[in-house]
Write a structure and sequence with these properties.
alpha+beta, Ribosomal Protein L22, Chain A, two-stranded antiparallel sheet, 31% strand
Length: 99
């Protein structure tokens, strides 16, 4: 999914408590919301298991979606020419901090 589509969802959770951010992502009707929620759950689990932090005290300090590698494909067009198809992807970075 393109970073542009992902940024619309990521901006909504920035600065929220982690549990509230998961609730917000649960009601956002976009495919990118499911992917961001999956990343946020992973970040919460990492903070809990690796650093011993309490999940209810975590806040989404930073949530960023940046562009990644683009796969370039081609589709046939009229009169034997070809048109480009750009399959974009992105990196999601979520940083949590304790309140």
């Amino acid at each position: 999914m393109s970073a542009q589509k992902m940024r619309e969802v990521v901006r909504q959770i920035q600065g929220l408590p982690a549990q509230q951010a998961l609730a917000v992502l649960g009601v956002v009707p976009r495919k990118s919301a499911r992917l961001v929620a999956k990343t946020l759950k992973s970040a919460i689990a990492n903070a809990e298991n690796n650093n011993g932090l309490k999940p209810e005290r975590l806040i989404v300090k930073e949530a960023v979606a940046g562009a990644a590698a683009t796969m370039k494909r081609f589709t046939p067009k009229a009169r034997g020419s070809a048109g480009p198809i750009l399959k974009r992807s992105c990196h999601i970075r979520i940083i949590l901090s304790e309140a």
